[in-house]
Amino acid sequence: MRSDDFFGGEGGLIHNLGITDMSQAEEVLHMSYSFLKLMSYYNCAMMEVETKFNVLNEEFSLMWDREPIASVKTRLKNPISIRNKLVLKGYPFSLENVERYVNDIAGVRIVCSFLEDVYTVAEAFKKQDDVTLLEEKDYIKNPKPNGYRSLHLIVSVPIFLQHEKKQMKVEIQLRTLAMDFWASLEHQLNYKKSIGEDVSMLADLKYCAELSAELDKHMDELRERVQSEPEDVEDVLKKTMTDAPVPVKKS
Ligand code: 0O2
Fold it and tell me: Which residues are near ligand 1 (CB < 6 Å)?
């Protein structure tokens, strides 16, 4: 934004906010800068967590010959949604309240291939010594009334800045591909038209959530069966070759 747009007469931001004196304008500028700084801290924390899951996926995929994490997505909550969440919780907008009461400014969504992967990956993540678990909501074991399933973790992770270390909150949602499919479509349906009042649509959505939970259960059983089958001789040989230390060429 150019300073003209900020201070300018009619049409300028300061004018539109009804601000008439310089000290108020400075306060707004200061608040905007502090807000942007806070958002960039959340962005850093989100990147830290994203990397942690990518590292876990790399290690698990070496051990299992398949990737337990199908995708890792990140999103930073937009300022309007942050304000709405604070209002909903009954707090006025301030940077302190944003940090204290809004847990999901930095969001990381982990979509796993199989149901068991969700818990294996979550446990491996929670065990890391710089991760502090603040809250855990298991909507897989206890789905929401509409059928929503996911494992939610609110954690605090450190970010290392030039002169300080800051602890930042990140919300992590872990779910299977089937849960993600349901949640994405439900979100779209609710976005288009509020179906909150339509009893038959709500029942249908819940039925779909149960179908997808059944699918997850069956796929997990299939995975167990495949894993318990004796390994093919060729696979064992291939694995032995990969595990063997790479000979160092002597000069
Ligand atoms: P967005 O745009 O996805 O971020 P808290 O955040 O813990 O203070 P809240 O909001 O009760 O309080 O947390 P909850 O219910 O554990 O989970 C919040 C997030 O989970 C939501 O974020 C959604 O992303 C997701 N979620 C929860 N319930 C549902 C649901 O029924 N359907 C779908 N599709 N997603 C759901 P936001 O802030 O609502 O939105």
Answer: 77, 103-104, 107, 137, 144, 146, 148, 152, 183, 186-187
